[in-house]
Amino acid sequence: MHEWAARVARDWPAFTVETRGGWRLGLADGVTKRANSALVLDPGADVAEVTAYYTGHGVRPCAQVWPGEEAVDARLAEHGYEVVEPTLVLARGLDERPAAEGASLITARPTSAWSALFGRTGVDARTADTVTRILGQVGTAYGVAASGEGRGCAVLDGESVGICAMVTDPGARGKGVATGLLADLLRWAYDEGARSAYLCVVEGNEPALRLYGGAGFAPVSRYHNRVLG
């Protein structure tokens, strides 16, 4: 398995995982492609295994394809799997304590203010509940901007932290809410022992790329999903 694929899967974990036919098959009630996708373990992996597994669970078949997995990618294409959401992995070091205002509330459990952003950004209750359950399986810190208009998470794994679930209320975008929250999450992670940070962002999300680039993140890898058409 690709190194970054393993890390991302560990920080955004499926509820159940099966290994067979050269694949690691993750399932999490069909919510988010990242937790409901197949990861390549063997370059000769049979695409039919992915199709059978996910259709058998009532979930649209999906596989992540990382650099070096071009042969598998070609076979997925031959079986009718289409490219969806090319994604970049961005990373930065945390050699020094990041400058931050410290105004965000960061807690070990999701607060009502953190959860409220689901509804305000159009996320249905079932998806919100599943995302919360996914994050509850790992060492997650939940951050909410002082204004309550933005939230995000930091998943700590030793000296590395993954930033995820960043959301800003549509009416507050462009006002620096996410910038301040991200800085606070990074400083929290540094204080907890993290010395590097990473995150995943869809390749075409220009506002997010500007935000993360301004915070010192740079591309280190990429993947795309192949979803059965």
Average predicted confidence as pLDDT:
96
Output the CATH class name of the largest domain. Answer: Alpha Beta
Measured by DSSP, the beta-strand proportion falls in: 25-35%
CATH architecture of the largest domain: 3-Layer(aba) Sandwich
Integer count of domains: 2
The parts where pLDDT drops under 50 for at least 5 residues are: none
**CATH fold naming of the largest domain:** Aminopeptidase
Distance between the termini: 25 Å
Into which percent range does the helicity of residues fall? 25-40%
What is the topology, as strand order, of the major beta sheet? Answer: 4-11-5-10-9-8-7-6
Q: How much is the radius of gyration in Å?
A: 18 Å
Our count of helices gives 7
Q: State the shape.
A: globular
The major sheet is characterized as: 8 strands, mixed
- Name the structural class: alpha+beta
Order of SSEs: HEEEHEHEEHHEEEHEHE
> How many strands?
11
Q: Mind telling me the CATH superfamily name of the largest domain?
A: Gcn5-related N-acetyltransferase (GNAT)
Give a topology summary.
Elements: H1 3-11, E1 16-20, E2 23-27, E3 38-40, H2 47-56, E4 62-65, H3 70-78, E5 81-93, E6 105-107, H4 112-120, H5 125-135, E7 140-144, E8 150-157, E9 160-168, H6 177-191, E10 196-202, H7 206-214, E11 218-228
Parallel strand pairs: 9-10
Antiparallel strand pairs: 1-2, 2-3, 4-11, 5-10, 5-11, 6-7, 7-8, 8-9
Question: Overview of this structure, please?
Answer:
The mean pLDDT is 96. Helices cover 31% and strands 32% of the residues. It has 229 residues and is α+β, with helices and mostly antiparallel strands. It has seven helices and eleven strands. It starts with a helix and ends with a strand.
